[in-house]
Amino acid sequence: MAKSNKSVSPNQPDPDLLRRLFFIRQVGLALVVQLAAAALCARPFAALSRILPPSLTEMHISFALAALFGALSLFLSDADRASRWDFLGRAFAFLCALIAIASFFEPSPSHLLALRNDGVHVFTGIALLLISIVLLLVRAAEGTACRVADIAVSCLHLVVLILASEYVFGSLQLPDSSLSGIPTPTTLACLVLLTMVLLSRRAEIGLFRIFLGSGIGGRIARWLSPFLLLLPFVREAGRARVLSSQIFPRMYALGIIASIASVVAFALLIILVRRINQMEMCIHDLTLRDELTGLYNVRGFNLLAGQSLRLAQRAEVPFSVLFVDMDNLKRINDELGHSAGSATLAETAKLLTATFREADVIARVGGDEFVVAGQFNHEAVAASARRLQDLAAARFSDAYGKFPLSLSVGYATSADNRFDSLRELVARADQAMYDRKRRKKAGLPEPLRAMTGPAAVKPAEMESFAQTAGIHAPS
Prior knowledge:
The chain folds into 2 domains: about 15-215, no CATH class; about 300-470, Reverse transcriptase/Diguanylate cyclase domain (Alpha-Beta Plaits, 2-Layer Sandwich), CATH 3.30.70.270. By secondary structure, the chain is of the alpha+beta class. The protein has helices at about 15-40, 45-50, 55, 60-75, 85-100, 120-135, 145-170, 185-205, 215-245, 250-290, 300-315, 330-335, 340-355, 380-395, 420-440, 465-470, and strands at about 105, 115, 320-325, 360-365, 370-375, 405-415, 450. The chain is elongated and about 115 Å long. About 65% of the residues lie in helices and about 5% in strands. Strand 6 (about 405-415), helix 15 (about 420-440) and strand 7 form a beta-alpha-beta unit. The protein contains 16 helices and 7 strands.
């Protein structure tokens, strides 16, 4: 069972995920700066342009400048930057916006400026303009500015997804697709990287926060989103290939594609449900188990031991509860430290697990108190108690020097003609344990015995267990 020392609301971003995203953002921005700088340097230096890939030298200078300014703005507007650098980051965002607007126009012989009508400048200019809007509002956490930033990020994601998918379809030479009107690979790479960085920044405070959440919703969203994003494009690519390859008769092609998509969607549903069930089991264990020992806690014991007792009563078989208290644990904590005490508790939990059956309910119900419940008769529970004390004596006899740790054990078994409640059995087992402890301190050891009938329980003797378990002896 995974342990965590964090306490984070499921709606809040996971701190570990935020740290990883920060590193990924820095790497992405560094790549954008390098690509844009290389494209700008390739223009004045002919020798450099000959050794660089053609896609870098073909990148339009306005796109390279806008991508460079956008990356620098994101670097400077990061949350932990000083306020004086934030102003410079906004200035770079304004420059990116001006260049994006300028990319829509071109010099004309008859007019001073004319609108461009090619898809490369139009779609790339729209993407750069949306990037500029998000850069100016990247820190908006509420109000109209926050909504505008989230809408701009959503539109940017759509535009860049159209360009990237059309580039992939055109590269695969699928029917009804073409590379004409698509920006160069370098320009497209810069747009994709900037979009990813902006999405992760807005996900920290905006509408897309669910993708960074530490709860089940955030985990499912992160796991499922790649499939939901890629599945439509894979379907369209497969459809185009099937229709053009003529492997299947054309009359069956659409039916085959739709059936495959249905099966894939159903498989995703099964995987999603299995994942949710696994998460629910983890949550179930967290609420019913003790973190230190891995045994059940008070809540888990009350739930599972109560069920086991009802089954035993229905089958008319004996049922026993065994109560265990660790002697000298306080002295171990005081003189050797709490780490030694924690290790001793964990070792005692291992002894209990080795002594009893898997079907028995073993729980830690207090600081140094354990309880075991199961379908035992008098002889079986007595033998198990003796075996547990023998194992503890062998394990702890020389471990702590002048104050060796030992176990005080008491147990109670339900009578054949009685329908004892779990509280009654625990109370009698607890009393038997305290009686054993008193005799041990007085130097009067007594063989272990099972209490099979009601016995008077002193409130003072039940106080420690009552405070932790909420189980009281009957009045």
